[in-house]
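Figure 6 in text form: structure in, sequence out.
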């Protein structure tokens, strides 16, 4: 409008803005859609991996055990049966879940 390419009336301004919006959306739709569908299936790196603690009750397969660490209540899960009083080590971390294994001496 400043350079005189298009009229400075309201109707023409809204029309040009609408057309430019449609064109930009059409051009960027596919790349942005691909970008939004990209996912990574990587294990989360955490400083909790390697943390050791002693459990006070038996931890059986398919069940969980509450463990409070750093002011957060975590669910500790194991893939094998672990007896009460055993030292365990965190092997993997998920949202709210610590996957643990018994530490072999």
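Output sequence:
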């Amino acid at each position: 409008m400043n350079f005189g390419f298009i009229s400075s009336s309201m109707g023409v301004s809204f029309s040009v803005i609408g057309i430019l919006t449609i064109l930009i959306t059409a051009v960027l739709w596919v790349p942005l859609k691909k970008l939004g569908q990209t996912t990574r299936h990587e294990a989360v790196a955490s400083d909790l991996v390697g943390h050791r603690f002693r459990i006070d009750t038996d931890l059986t397969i398919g069940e969980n055990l509450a463990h409070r660490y750093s002011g957060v209540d975590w669910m500790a899960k194991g893939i094998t049966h672990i007896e009460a009083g055993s030292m365990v080590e965190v092997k993997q971390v998920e949202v709210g879940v610590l996957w643990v294994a018994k530490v072999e001496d």
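Caption detail: The chain has two domains: 1-39, 52-102.
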